[in-house]
Design a protein that fits this description.
- By secondary structure, the protein is mainly alpha-helical.
- The chain has one domain.
- The chain has a two-stranded antiparallel sheet with strand order 1-2.
């Protein structure tokens, strides 16, 4: 994959990771501790989005105080693949989430791919 030398970046006004619907995130939910699972489920609003996700502005309302499992730097630890490059794992995670929520042809995915490509060319 082209992004293997890229550095992960979060793009503004995406929010794909804020879609918490448990039936869509079983693999992730299973990796969390019992306590983390309870916290995760407490964040899910009736529409499947995080209750702290502002759908109008596409921003997290608790970004600086979000739970550990919401922090991309913890992905490799949560999924027990610390031997892998966390940037590669995070990029794959973001691309997969963006595709599942907005589609593979969405403007969000195009912006994301452009962002990681631009970052890779600067490194």
């Amino acid at each position: 994959m082209k992004h293997k030398s890229s550095t992960w970046v979060c793009i503004s006004q995406c929010g794909a990771c804020c879609r918490l619907a448990p039936e869509e995130r079983l693999e992730a939910l299973e990796q969390l501790s019992e306590e983390q699972q309870k916290e995760y489920l407490s964040l899910v609003a009736s529409d499947g989005w995080c209750k702290f996700y502002n759908k109008s502005t596409k921003e997290c309302l608790i970004y600086t105080k979000r739970p550990d499992f919401c922090k991309v730097k913890n992905l490799s630890k949560i999924f027990k693949c610390e031997h892998k490059n966390n940037d590669i794992l995070a990029i794959d995670f973001c691309i997969q989430n963006i595709k599942s929520i907005y589609s593979g042809r969405s403007s969000v995915l195009k912006r994301y791919k452009k962002a990681i490509k631009c970052l890779a060319s600067k490194n």
